[in-house]
Amino acid sequence: MVTTDPPDSVAVSRPVPPVPAGGTGRRARPPLSRLIPYVLIAPTVLALVAVLGYPLIELVLLSFQDMTRRELFAGTEPPWAGLRQYRTLATDGFFWTVVGRTALFTTVATTLTMALAMGVALLGRRVSPWVRLLMAGVLVAVWAMPVMVAAAVFRWLVDADYGVMNWLLSQVPGLDFSKHNWFENPWQGFTVVVAVVVWGSLPFAAITLQAALTQVPPELEEAATVDGATRPQILRHIIFPVIKPAFVVVTTLNAIWNFGVFNQIWLMRTGQPEKEYYLLGVYSFIESFAVNRYSAGAAIAVVTVLLLLVGAVVYVRQLVRMGETE
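RESULT FIELD:
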């Protein structure tokens, strides 16, 4: 008598669904579903066109005209001036001085912001959780502070009569800063303005970089430490390559924001900034609403927008590269 052991498992054949022509096995999307993303994004596009597009077109048109108070009050169409406003700017030495000053201001403010933000983010990794939570709360509080309040606080700190900064520096042997006016010298005045700008920009940059640092694998740092790498080497070769996309994007955004700074200078100089404190945003506003050269101010604003577009192109390219990497 021959016996056979039962099989461990019994294979059950299942019918295989037919594969449609083309061999992909995917269902073709109905035509209506392809339009859904465009329908959903249409309100946002229309809002941007209405809020940003129409004023920008009017600004460009105004830069090719010669708008004066007579046309403004009478409501008549200003005469066309062609490229006269732009030719005037191209031959104006003071305009190019303001452009260079704006570029230098943007570089200094952005560099300081990113350096301090990187330091704060790295410090957040070394402290205990409750200290990290406290740091995050302080950064959010600073970020929520209105620009007007921050400017008022810094004006009090550097006040010539009652400023805390003058009092502290006067405590140093050999220094006398009593009644010192920080805005008499433009270099010292811009130091205060840069401090206000960095103060307001630091929280966003630090919180973003701190979030990016959470993506750094701890085992890579441990392996590098075992191999004898120093902290600067780990930061350069391990940490920074991981957070580089976020770092570049935040740097680009800060550069765009700092290039168009207006509120901080206007508030720190109580609405009457001297020519030594003109940046492109301030210069355009003064030409338009203080000197009543509306078309000249519009031309300066158009040039500012074109320069900002350079930063916007860099920002978009970085976003595209990040998408391709992912």
